[in-house]
Design the sequence.
């Protein structure tokens, strides 16, 4: 009788994976070390403890050939992707969950392992219909879901009609009755402190009652973000003092920077207490001396910025970064198409969208078959852009912080997300850096791991 | 045999290459592993760096290598950044393909420390002894924590550390003497000498006197490494700075030996 050969599955599996021969993003630099993680708990392990204390032999050792290991990307402003728009309610709601599942699946393969599905200014019924689908989805810790929602981002409708961008004017509202205006728009249930599916609300701080609304949202654990706003510097500052933590796509849909009133951009400057006696707007006479206000600690807000090279000039993006490097969050702000005339549009993630009437269809990608719409995501393209814009004094690790540790800190989930310390979720992007003949540095997604399981392996 | 190299880098590289050659010619396999004794300290860091480089270049696998470390502090958890567990993890084990079950370090947290030492010696015996013990020395010529005055026949045991050693180590504990453990578990001089081959790296002028005492003078328990004179296969690799206290004659002698051996195609291989 032949000796019985045990299939490898029958050996005790510990689910431990070791990524080796790689350079790991550690705060401001890349460090040659291994990453140990568990597909059972979905978390990063302390390799030394596993080795000495548990004498763990990893089930799988992955040789990454010197590639870069980075925490999974976090996208804080994505209006839709792959032909699916989070703000469009289909006739049949089951199509919404299908579309969402499709996006999650494909998005993860681009390196975005968590994100805020973003809904633009819509009528109340749209929010109330879609928000229950868009809440945090990480509780199951299931890699097969793909990209994980960290909660919805409601961009509007409490925004300035002067800075509506492509949002429908007819959808834009004033928070005239304070938080109850928001409740009747988003739905009371969707604004309950402990169960809200909403993570971030973009609003204009200069609107009537916006300041108390910002205070109330903060108290409920929803992050107020200043955006689509006509605010002066002072109005923006009032929003920050009320609890707004971040700015939505800095420079876009707000007053342009003026040297006598810098508007929202001024929030990245010196602490206002230091300026209290030196500015007096609207008057040519030197200001009277005021006592500095009671000592307030000023924290510069985080700010999203679209580094696609079109929305913001590279020089302005690097300028903003140099004012507040720890606050910058690169976003794609993938465009919604419903306001566009019929036609063919280049879409994020390498695809094309054909719009005819209310029907949006995803055109076949022209890239080689079997590759995910070019395999490089919009977010990584934006990161690559910015890496090329900054000088050599800004390390790649620092550039990557704009889509990892910084958004995680803004969202209050740093430690679980945005880093690769033991105990963090094992959301990992493996990157390959390169250099084109033109001198342009390139960055490609080679592999993506979600909760300790590989969900993508590309051909770079 | 004493090998002299101009720079610490070259001396370390020599040792790393030597160790790799020895492991390869041994051709270890499961059931017949290569048993390697390992040190901690500043001199071996460069050796480990070269070993890691060679591993990454695919020149050497540690799959069938079993290691025994020389020493560990008492009362320091393995995860403490200044433990020798952490040192070995940082400089070698985390970068190579060694199996965690093949790695042996003394457990300074053991409830019964003496039993732990006996267990360690027994485990070394179980593997049939150590094939090659790699070591460094302190400025006072001590090997592992076998400080001056240790018995040359000593085996693995608990040692109270000399105040000088505690002081020398305080830089690893935030320069706070009170944080430095004052006891350690260490292999004995005899444990090292029982290895079939002993390879010692000595780097820097501050170790020159120790080198001189250990090779130019008699066997003496005040310079514990001097016991190497009685070992059948010792190899000492030093940088130029470490030879400062040696007689010119001694340096010339060892350099000429290496040249002659090379010209005869013998190199410095251990005889089979
Ligand atoms: Zn917008």
Sequence:
């Amino acid at each position: 009788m032949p000796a019985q050969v045990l299939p490898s599955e029958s050996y005790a599996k510990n689910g431990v994976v070791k990524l080796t021969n790689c350079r790991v993003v550690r705060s401001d630099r890349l460090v040659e070390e291994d990453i140990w993680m568990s597909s059972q708990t979905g978390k990063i392990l302390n390799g030394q403890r596993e080795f000495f204390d548990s004498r763990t032999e990893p089930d799988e050792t992955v040789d990454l050939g010197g590639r870069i290991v980075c925490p999974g990307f976090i996208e804080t402003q994505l209006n839709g992707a792959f032909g699916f728009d989070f703000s469009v309610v289909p006739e049949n709601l089951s199509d919404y969950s299908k579309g969402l599942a499709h996006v999650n699946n494909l998005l993860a393969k681009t390196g975005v392992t968590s994100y805020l599905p973003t809904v633009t200014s819509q009528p109340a019924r749209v929010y109330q219909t879609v928000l229950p689908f868009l809440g945090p989805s990480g509780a199951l810790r299931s890699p097969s879901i793909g990209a994980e929602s960290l909660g919805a981002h409601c961009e509007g409708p409490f925004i300035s009609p002067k800075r509506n961008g492509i949002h429908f004017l007819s959808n834009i509202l004033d928070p005239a009755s304070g938080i109850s205006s928001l409740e009747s728009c988003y739905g009371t249930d969707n604004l309950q402190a402990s169960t809200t599916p909403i993570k971030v609300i973009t609003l204009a701080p200069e609107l009537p009652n916006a300041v108390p609304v910002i205070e109330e949202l903060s108290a409920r654990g929803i992050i107020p973000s200043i955006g689509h706003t006509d605010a002066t510097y002072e109005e923006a500052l009032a929003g920050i003092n009320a609890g707004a933590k971040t700015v939505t796509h800095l420079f876009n849909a707000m007053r342009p920077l003026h040297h006598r009133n810098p508007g929202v951009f001024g929030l990245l400057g010196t602490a206002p207490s230091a300026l209290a006696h030196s500015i007096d707007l609207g008057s040519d006479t030197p200001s009277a001396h005021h006592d500095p206000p009671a000592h307030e600690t000023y924290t510069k807000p985080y700010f999203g910025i679209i580094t696609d090279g079109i929305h913001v000039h590279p020089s302005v993006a690097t300028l903003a970064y140099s004012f507040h490097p720890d606050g910058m969050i690169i976003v794609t702000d993938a465009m919604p198409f419903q306001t566009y005339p019929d036609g063919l549009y280049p879409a994020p993630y390498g695809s094309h969208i054909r719009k005819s009437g209310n029907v949006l269809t995803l055109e076949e990608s022209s890239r080689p078959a079997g590759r995910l719409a070019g395999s490089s995501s919009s977010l990584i393209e934006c990161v690559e852009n910015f890496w090329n814009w900054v000088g050599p004094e800004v390390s790649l690790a620092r550039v990557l912080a704009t889509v990892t540790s910084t958004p995680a800190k803004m969202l209050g989930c740093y430690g679980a997300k945005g880093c690769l310390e033991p105990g963090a979720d094992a959301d990992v992007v493996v990157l390959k850096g390169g250099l084109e003949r033109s001198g342009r540095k390139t960055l490609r997604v080679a592999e993506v791991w979600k909760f300790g399981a590989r969900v993508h392996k590309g051909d770079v | 045999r004493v090998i002299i190299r101009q720079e610490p880098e070259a001396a370390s590289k020599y040792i790393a290459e030597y160790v790799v050659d020895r492991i390869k010619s041994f051709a270890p396999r499961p059931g017949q592993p290569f048993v390697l004794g390992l040190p901690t300290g500043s001199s071996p860091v460069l050796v480990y760096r070269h070993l890691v480089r060679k591993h990454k270049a695919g020149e050497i696998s540690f799959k069938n290598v079993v290691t025994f470390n020389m020493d560990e502090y008492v009362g320091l958890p393995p995860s403490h950044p200044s433990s020798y567990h952490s040192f070995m993890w940082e400089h070698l084990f985390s970068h190579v393909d060694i199996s965690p079950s093949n790695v042996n370090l003394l457990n300074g947290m053991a409830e019964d420390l003496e039993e732990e030492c006996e267990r360690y010696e027994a485990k070394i015996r179980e593997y049939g002894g150590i094939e090659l013990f790699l070591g460094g020395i302190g400025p006072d010529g001590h090997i592992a924590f076998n400080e001056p005055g240790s018995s040359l026949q000593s085996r693995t045991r608990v040692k109270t550390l000399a105040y000088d050693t505690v002081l020398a180590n305080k830089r690893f504990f935030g320069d706070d003497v009170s944080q430095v453990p004052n006891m350690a578990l260490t292999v004995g001089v005899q444990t090292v000498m029982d290895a079939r081959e002993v390879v010692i790296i000595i780097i820097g002028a501050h170790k020159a006197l120790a080198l001189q005492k250990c090779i130019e003078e008699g066997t003496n328990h005040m310079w514990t490494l001097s016991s190497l004179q009685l070992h059948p296969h010792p190899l000492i690799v030093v940088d130029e700075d470490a030879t400062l206290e040696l007689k010119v004659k001694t340096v010339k002698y060892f350099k000429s030996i290496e040249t002659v051996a090379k010209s005869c195609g013998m190199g410095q291989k251990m005889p089979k």
